[in-house]
Amino acid sequence: MLEVTSLNRVRFSLHSDDPSFRIERRGGAKFLLSGQVSSDPTGDVTVDLPDESFEVVLAKNSRPEHAVTALERALPRDVMMTHQTSEAGIEVLLQELVIPAARPPRLRIFSTDLLQRVKQLAENKVEFLGASGAAAHLTILCESKRVTIALPAASSPSVTAARVAASMPQGYRALVSGNTVSVWKDADFFSMVA
Q1: What are the domain boundaries of the chain?
Q2: Which residues contact 113 (CB under 8 A, 6 or more apart)?
Q3: Which of 30, 126, 174, 175 falls 20 to 30 Å from 103 in CA-CA distance?
Q4: Which pTM was predicted?
Q5: Cα dihedral sign for 152, 156, 188, 97?
Q6: Would you give the DSSP letter of residue 19?
C-alpha cells in the first residue's frame, strides 16, 4: 500500500489556550475568532509565522475586535492581515508580502486653507478633495525635508496635486493621477519607471 505524503506546510498558526476565546482554522491562513477572554488576568494568543513565533497578550473580557487590533500592531511588516466580520465572529486572513528594498517616504501635507481637504491614502500617497477657498500656503513634508508653496484661490484638487508634485523636495519624485499624488525617492522612482 502506498503512503500519501502531504506537501502542504502550515505557514501561519493562531492558537488560544482560553476555552472561552476560540480561534478556529478555516483552511490555509484563514481563522475565525469568536468568544471573549475569560482567563484571569489575561489571555494569550500564540502566533506562529514562517520566520518567528510570539504571543499577543489580551486583557480579560477582550473580544475578537480587540484581538484584531493587537495582532495588527504585533505583526511584522512582511505579514498582512485582512479581516471581516461575520455572524460567527471575525474572520482573519494572514498573507506574506514581498517587501521592497526601501520603505516609501513618509509624505505629509499641511494647508492654511480650510476648504480643500487632504486625505492620507498611504504612507507616500495623498488625495486632494474639493477646491481651495482663498489663497493659501501648503507645506510639503517629505520625511525630514520641507517645502512651502503658495496656492492660488479656487484651485481645483487636480491643480493642487500637480503643483505639489512639481514642488517635491530635492531627492524625491512624484507621480500624479488626477487629484492623487504618490511620492518616491529618486532611485526608487527611476527603477520603478524603467
Answers
A1: 13-96, 107-193
A2: 132, 133, 134, 136, 138, 151
A3: 30
A4: 0.48
A5: positive
A6: T
Q: 111 CB contacts (<8 Å, ≥6 apart)?
A: 118, 132, 136, 137, 138, 139, 151
Phi/psi zone of residue 67: left (φ > 0), alpha (ψ -120 to 50 degrees), beta? alpha
Instruction: Please report which residue ranges of the chain form alpha helices under DSSP H.
Output: 64-74, 157-166, 186-193
Paired residues of 137 in beta bridges: 150
Q: C-alpha 147: how far from its chain's center?
A: 26
* Residue corresponding to grid cell 517645502: 147
pLDDT tens by residue, 60-98 = 889 999 999 999 888 887 888 899 999 999 999 998 877
Side-chain half-sphere of 151: how many Cα atoms within 13 Å? 34
Instruction: With beta carbons less than 8 A apart as the criterion, state whether 169 and 140 touch.
Output: yes
- Cα→Cα distances 37→48, 69, 116, Å: 20, 15, 45
HSE (side-chain half, CA atoms, 13 Å) at 38: 8
State phi, psi for 17 to the nearest 5 degrees. -80, -15
> How do strand 89-96 and strand 42-48 relate by DSSP bridges?
unpaired
Task: Specify which residues 55 forms β-bridges with.
Answer: 46
